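Dear support,

Our group has been running a series of protein-ligand predictions, and this particular one with 3-methyl-2-oxobutanoic acid is the one our PI (initials K.S.) wants archived with full inputs and outputs. We had some confusion internally about which version of the output was final, so please treat the block below as the authoritative record. The input we submitted was:
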Amino acid sequence: MAISSRAKKVTTQTLLKMKQSGEKIAMLTAYDYSLARLVDNAGIDVILVGDSASNVMAGNETTVPITLEHMIYHAQCVVNGVDRALVVVDMPFGSYQGDSKTALDSAIRIMKESGGHAVKLEGGSEVCDSVKRIVEAGIPVMGHLGLTPQSIYKFGTYTVRAKEDAEATKLMEDAKALEEAGCFSVVFEKIPTELAKKVSESLTIPTIGIGAGPDCDGQVLVLHDMLGITKDFSPRFLRRYADLGEMTEDAVKQYVSDVRSQDFPNEEERY
Ligand code: KIV
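Confirmed final output from the archive:
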C-alpha cells in the first residue's frame, strides 16, 4: 500500500526515537525522480543520494570522479520525488577533505541547491572538525566508517574492514568521536557482525549497516543492486528482491521484435 503524501515526514529525531524503541530503520539509495518517488511511496525511512551514483549512474569504476555538481543534480531530482523520507546526500570525494571551511561551503551548497535534508561524509577523527562546523551551521551529518569507498586507492581492495583488533579499536573510537562531533547517525560498511553489534550498543545515535550484520539499528542497500539492475556485483550481504535487469532486457527484446515484425503499433496504438 502506498504511503499517503500527508504521512508524517521522517526527521533525524524520528530515527533517534526508532533506535530508542528498537524499531529498525530502512534506507535505500536513489539518484533520480522516478525511482525516488516509488521508493518513498513504498514507505522507506531514509533515501541516500549516494556517491555510488558514480558507479551505478555514470558507469565509473569508483566513486572518486563524481563531482559536487553531479551530486547536487541527482539530489535535486530525488527531492522532487519525495514526500516523506529523509533525504541524505553524499558529499563527494574532494568536497570536504581539504579543511572544515571547504567542507562547510560544500555542505551549504548541497542543502541550498538540492533541497536535501542532511549530508553524509566518510571518515573518523580526521573529519570531526568538519562535522562539528557543518552541524553548528544547522546541517545534520551522517558519518560513514568501515569500508569507505572514496579511499579505495588507499585500501587497494573492497574486502571486509576492521577484522584485526587495532582497526576494530580505531573504528570504535572513530564512531564515538563522530557521535561527539554531532553526527545524527553513522553508516558501517562491510565490518564484522560482532563489532557492529558492540559499537551500535555503545552509541546513542542510530547505526545503519551494509554488510555489517543484523544488529545495526537499520540497513541500507544500493537500490539498483537489490532490484537486480546491476548484474556484475554480488557480494554476500546483497539480497536481490527482484530481477529488473532480466525483465528489462526481455521487454526490450520483445519491443525490438514487435517493431521489426510491424506488430507494434497495432490498430489501437495509433491516431
Ligand atoms: O554511496 C552509497 O551508496 C553509500 C552506501 C553504500 C552506504 O554510501
